[in-house]
Structure formats: C-alpha cells, structure tokens
Amino acid sequence: MIWRKSNGPASALQHIRFFSRPGSGGDLLCFAFWLGILIVKIRTWSGRITGLAALGLIMGIVWAGSGVYSRGELAWKSYSESEIKQAMADHRPVMIEFTADWCLNCKVLEQTVLKSREIAAAVEMTGMISLRVDITRVSEENKQLLIRYKGYALPYLVLVDQNGTISHRLTGIFKAKTLADAIIKTGESV
Q1: pTM for this one?
Q2: Domains of the chain, each with CATH number or no CATH
Q3: Which of 10, 129, 154, 188 has the fewest beta carbons closer than 10 A?
C-alpha cells in the first residue's frame, strides 16, 4: 500500500477497506486510527474533546464486540463424566467433538465450521455445552468413549439432547448450516 495525500473521507475509506477483514472489527479500528489523525489536526479544544469522545466510543464498541460469541469461538471444555452429568442435571444439550492432532479433517472443521458465527449463535441460543475429546494419543478409555457415542472414525461430532439421548451424529466434513440446524433441533427436543 502506497500512502498518498487523502482527498477527504471518501479517500480515507478506501484506505480503511484495504486493511479490514469482514467481521473482524478492523473497519472500526481503521476508522478510529483515521479519526485520531484528524483529532491531532483540530485546533480547538472543544473539537479535540468531541473527537476523543468519539474515538473512545469506537474503541469501546470494538472491545465489547470482541467477546467469545462475536468471533464465532465456542467455549470448549475437555470431556469428563462430571461435565455430562452437570449438563443433564441442568437440562442442557451437549455437543461432543472427537478430534486428534493428526486428523487433518478435524483441524479443517475446527478452523472453519466450528468457528463460524452461525454455530456460535446456535450454541448460544440453545444453551448447549461444548465438550471436546482429544484422542491424539489413543487409549482404551478414548476407544470406549467413541464406541459409547456410536462413533467409528474421525472427525466425529455428536449432539446429545437434555435427556442424554444422542440426537445427531456427524462424521467427515460437513457444512456449518448442517450442524447449526442439528444444534437447533437438538435444543428444541425435550
């Protein structure tokens, strides 16, 4: 990017769009940077104070929007029987992902589907608990857990309703919409 003299807000917005990624808050951060430069050029104190207030507001919006669900990241917990029992006692559905470091398709799903805003919204809406079983090092316990939830290959994801019944099983590569629909259906079943 070659910097050149700005011809006003329209030109500045072209620079801002260059640095931003959709949904990252980059638009607001770039705008805040541009606004900060303008504040330095303002000669009156009242103008500077107004500019700083606007800058503070923008930074507050960016900070508030950087929460867990705005980026599409789930609050994963490691699988344990106590987590399952607590979820059932609280009448909450559970999503269990079986993954391993050596499973490339698992990593693809984790970086795309499982980090999508659509999944985060569905999980938040249903109050679903997200548990992860790491079977990088295969043990008898992990094998039995996979069999218990009727899995046979990775990647594997199972949804369990509030009553402890398996409602959906997904294996291989799947789309975010498929998983989001399954999450919502699992959350609705009583």
Answers
A1: 0.63
A2: 9-64 (no CATH), 77-188 (3.40.30.10)
A3: 10
